[in-house]
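Summary for the steering committee. The consortium agreed at its last meeting that each partner would contribute one worked example illustrating the joint modelling workflow. Our contribution is presented below. We chose a case with several input lines so that the handling of multiple components could be demonstrated. No manual editing was applied between input and output; the record is shown as generated.
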Amino acid sequence: MDAPLLELRRVSKTFGPTRALDDVSFALRAGTIHALVGENGAGKSTLIKTVTGLHPPSSGSILVDGQEVRFRSTAEAQRAGIAAIYQEPMVFPDLSVAENIFISHQDRPPWIDWAGLEREAAALIARLGVALDPSRPAGELTLAEQQTVEIARAIGLRVRVLIMDEPSAALSEHEVGRLHGIARALRAEGVAVLYISHRLEEVFALADMVTVMRDGRHVSTRPRSEVTQAGLVSEMVGRDMEGRFARTPSRATGQRVLAVRRLGRTGVFEDISFELAAGEIVCLAGLVGARRTDVALALFGVAPADRGTVEIEGRPAIIRSPRDAMRLGLAYVPEDRRKLGLALGLSVEANITLPRLEAYRDGRGLLDRARERADALRFRDAMRIKAAGPEVPVGTLSGGNQQKVMLAKWLNTAPRILIVDEPTRGIDIGAKAEVHRILRDLAGEGVAILVISSDLPEVLSLADRVLVMREGRLVGDLPGARTSEEAVMRLAVGAGEAAA
Amino acid sequence: MTPLSAPALRLLVLLAVLALTVVFFATQIPNYLDARLFNRISTSVAVILPVAVGQAFVVLTRNIDLSVGSIVGATAYATGGLLGAFPDLPPLLVPLVAMAMGGCLGAVNGFLVSRFALPSIIVTLGTLAIFRSLLVQFSGGASITMASLPAWVPAFAQANALSWEGIQLRWMVLLALAVVIVAHVVLARTRAGRQFYAVGSNPDAAAFAGIDLRATVFRAFVISGALAGLAGFLFLSRFGNITVVAGLSWELRSVGAVVVGGVNIFGGSGSVLGVLIGATLIDLIDTSLVRWALVSEFWREAVLGFLILGAVALDALLTRRLLRRRARRSLPGARPALAPSGEARP
Amino acid sequence: MTALRERLTSWEGFLLLVLVLLYAWNALASPVFLTLGNQVNLFQLSIEKVIVALAMTFVIINGEIDLSVASVMGLAACSFGWLHGAGVPAAAAIPLVLLLGLACGGFNAFWVVRVGLPSLVVTLATMIAFRGLARVLVEDRGIGGFPAWFNALGQKPLIGPFPFAILLFFAMAALAWVLLHRTVFGRQVTVIGASRAVAEYSGVDVGRVKTAVLVASSGVAALAGLLFAARVGAVRGDVALGFELDIITIVLLGGVSIFGGVGSVTGTVLAILIVLSLRNGMALANLTGHIQSGVLGVLLILSVMVPVFRGWFQRVLHRPEAVS
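What follows is the complete predicted structure of the assembly.
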């Protein structure tokens, strides 16, 4: 057999102390669809960026046709025949489909022959087995159609390796079918397709080869015929099952605080119903695209739901804005610290007092800075935040300490219902344990906590109950004490249904 | 296929508005529709048109150039001074020299904006003052007068290419129209031209597609400066007398022509043909208000301001409708970022 | 100790140093510079701009910009003149004009907050439109002959050598400082500028704060327009034309980031003193207004580049921490 189209040999990629890719080797052959699966954070995205020249590898080598290559930009990778398309398409909304397809073709003549361009574009699109008017502005297309434009752009560049990063995550069932048709058409033309997905049904329907990654490492590469769903799930999770994390005994939980009934938002999530009791920690598990954050944003009033009801402490609650939610005793700690959670340029104390600034007015209507300082110091001590002082900008702290400041900011509002979104992503082990301790203490004080987490060990060690979401729907409600990572993962990837 | 694309529809609407304006004033002002109206408006539009075309290149890339008025003044003055010192310069060379001078000033803007990623509105607000003060410095406050210029300069502005029943088509007008046509061909038919649209339509995608963002923005400012230089020459030719206030506040008129002409102030869409109509419309309203008995001519500026606001609001509305149709699933503030923050921007 | 060092090496410290040098230079170049009369005069000549600069500090820290302030000043002055010409007593005209100013701000805020257009574009258009309205009111006339008490407000010393406007400026500067640095509102203005999304997620009513800031900006500009009318004793269509350049330059020079979230009233006041003494020095050196504007243009570009310089500075001093 001749050399594979694309081969990775012992590729590693480090960001500071973090090892995002660790000694990864595998090969991609022409005319195959190669699925890449793994949990969130398994290193799939880093792998793509490494192969397409966005992040050159720290060590190891990448070979195309047996020749070692080193790309410094996506344009270079494209010239070598490697391109990637993403969940959010990169199109020019004002330009026509035809122009979008040919914009990056450096070898075309400087004069544009519009009729010819549209003919060629139509031919390319036809090769994908899709109908699309090449003269329409790309901004008018649906997400799926924009993806098609991107794929056409790639094959117009005579790309031989096409990487598709979770391309189906935001598509409807019908659109996914069409996307699969495109992938098969490409395979028939001899293109190697690297298809990243966490929907196992899709993997089994489409792929010739399956590679599993976990914690930045390559786990296995096998023909599809040799893998089973159960085997894949256990390779994706891949930890020794018996508790490395001490499992907490189920707390005696108090009264029902939150009841969500048939909550829905068109095109985003549907029919979400669950309850939360005082002192209970419920984890919301699922993979990227499961729409867990969207449910949280609806509860917190950032992007309100358009159907269903929410009851808080037995009373119907109407939440149209974060202010409404805060009045009702809700707090939401977002995942994205830098964009949504903290004003990094502002001081630690200004961030901590922000959500209830009004409470710091003194008799003359001015800010009581002494009280702000006192509260900031109180949280610093209680949560062991390492900062030179409450007046330093929050951006100068480490990730773990920023995370604690963000928690402190919301605990300062004394919430009865706390939603935390990926509370330990990207922070070190010690800080992670402390965040867990803080959450458990809060539950002990009677706060109802909803944790969105993709970290299965974390889910299992924290949760009294685990809710699992997939594609905008609630697909499981498991008791925390008796569930396993496999059980959660099976629900999250939809393995049970596909096997049936 | 849809019967008409959105940009084509836009042009037709603009033409209709233009026609309606003419009809309206024809009913209001006695002897309105005559050859003099055409002559006056065509020559007056011809001078500002190159500026507006250059402005369109800049606006397409999501920027703005407020310094063009000062560039017009500075180049008009410098060209006049040059002609005073060297009256025997070959006439064909003179507009090229003016364009080169304007292009250099534009390069200053382009360098500051593209190299340091500074907001163009602030940079060009600064150079607006700087270029004007350069003009004052070198002129010493003195004016260029018709008498100091070679005879061909004012003659050029008066020369007719065609004349029919009192309707005169000046060479100057043809020159300005040639600028429009060349710019239109470049923008609509060349890869280099389409890059201006690409950069303004989606800078991230443009970078991904291997388009040099900095170079494209830089180029737009150089073009804007060079065309303002050409307008400086036309200004000199038409008026002969140049004082330190030459071209004052033309930046606003050019932005007005561009925006009213349907170039999206948020970049990425629009055509130079629209700019031609936009400039004509603004000039027509200006000229007609002066002659309209019912309303003070001093409404000109206010009308221009509200016209710009209306055009921008319309654009935002259209853009938003497009986006709603497209991103029916993504949420404000919760969009998954492709590249980690800090990667796209320094 | 560290706090003191930090303060001295901060932008405000740098501005203070520049100011001291500038004063020393001017004092050496011209013996009249340091006299109280000249200092009062220096303020008096630009008092309208510096008052508006205080409000503009809030606008830019809030992450917006208001290019229409100079036109609002012109419109306010001209409508005062127009009302006066129409026989409205000055005491009644003043509140009407101030209301008009607030309405201009409300108009800007409507497009920015409700419709969601960038303030840059909106205020560029209203800059033209408001100026146009001013010209409609007075056409090409000059209107004067205001009551003596009104003119005295702008021209005659009120307490000691200080006229009303200067006293007002110092009162407003103190008020601005308290408002920005010591109240809930000021904190919200800063947070919104630093990160609008964070403010929204923290329950701040972003629309209300932005509206307040834009309305205040125009209101203060209208007040400044009245002061201009009082000081000059007459109005024309081009009152305050081009003042936005000086005002924005002052604010950016004062260390307010054009991208919002960073800045202080102290910085703005120091920048005011710098720009005034620079202008005064240039005037004493017989440089024309256009040249002075050119120097200010250079200053504007340099001040918007402050973050660039600061970035170079920091890259040399501290290696950036790796953030993955």
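The mean pLDDT of chain B is 87. DSSP finds 13 helices and two strands in chain B.
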